[in-house]
Design brief:
The protein is mainly β. It contains 4 helices and 15 strands. The chain has helices at residues 57-63, 118-124, 190-195, 197-204, and strands at 32-33, 36-37, 41-52, 67-82, 85-86, 92-104, 110-111, 128-129, 133-145, 148-157, 161-170, 179-188, 209-210, 216-223, 228-230.
């Protein structure tokens, strides 16, 4: 879930002592991997300025639709090692993503939401028709500290859909074993219904729980390696 675009402010690592400066990525519209690894820690430094989101396949793969636009991406994490193995419970740093004028969908590709059920996948066939959703701006910041990776800032503006998001990851020694506690709430706009009734209808058929405030709700729980999306009301503080 997400489309990215605009400007990112990165906070330095949150360990004690002087903070390291955030990595400076070349302004060449490409993603750069400046990560390093030593005996004490793994240092993940990954990002770029005004990168084409179409050139980051994992975004479209996770959403299930093409994503276009440009975004600033900056990942700056330090994971200390215990012995020779990174221990994510000790991770510090930030993840920041921002975009403006991005789009999900291209008015051609169909929305596919694969599940572990072969029967459900077969029933879905070629997927649900989906036009596109416009995002005027999106800004996201997550901070790793004190055994947690937490979403601390979320700003989302779109004429088509209002999305609210909360996410905390209780970090384990292995990132894949870490526990998710998240909530996604969204409301489809009347403007989208007028512009594109089919896409409006598709967003109503996600299986998410519809609350009294007309927001759809999906709780996200379980381990990172096997997340569970649960259709029930959830809260965002």
């Amino acid at each position: 879930m997400a489309k990215l675009c605009a400007v990112i402010l990165l906070v330095g690592c949150g360990s004690s002592g002087p903070k390291a400066d955030p990595p400076e990525f070349p302004d060449d519209h490409k993603l750069h991997d400046l990560s390093t690894d030593d005996a004490q820690a793994s240092h993940i430094r990954y990002g770029g300025k005004q990168v084409s989101l179409a050139d980051i396949p994992i975004i479209s793969e996770k959403i299930g639709l093409p994503v276009t636009g440009t975004g600033d991406v900056s990942i700056d994490l330090t994971i200390p090692k215990v012995g020779r193995t990174p221990d994510y419970t000790k991770a510090t740093g930030t993840i920041s993503i921002a975009c403006t004028k991005c789009q999900i969908g291209d008015d051609t590709a169909r929305l596919k939401m694969p599940t572990k059920s072969k029967r459900a996948n077969a029933f879905a066939g070629e997927g649900v028709w989906f036009g596109h959703v416009t995002i005027d701006s999106l800004e996201l910041t997550m901070i790793a500290a004190n055994g947690r990776l937490e979403l601390t800032s979320w700003k989302f503006v779109s004429p088509d859909i209002d999305i609210q998001l909360a996410l905390t990851v209780e970090l384990r020694k292995s990132l894949q074993d870490s526990d998710l506690d998240g909530c996604v709430r969204f409301k489809v706009s009347d403007a989208l219904e007028k512009r594109d009734p089919k896409t409006h209808a598709a967003l109503w058929l996600t299986g998410a729980h519809l609350g009294a405030d007309r927001f759809f709700n999906i709780a996200v729980q379980g381990a990172v390696k096997n997340p569970r999306r649960i259709s029930r009301e959830c809260k965002i503080n």
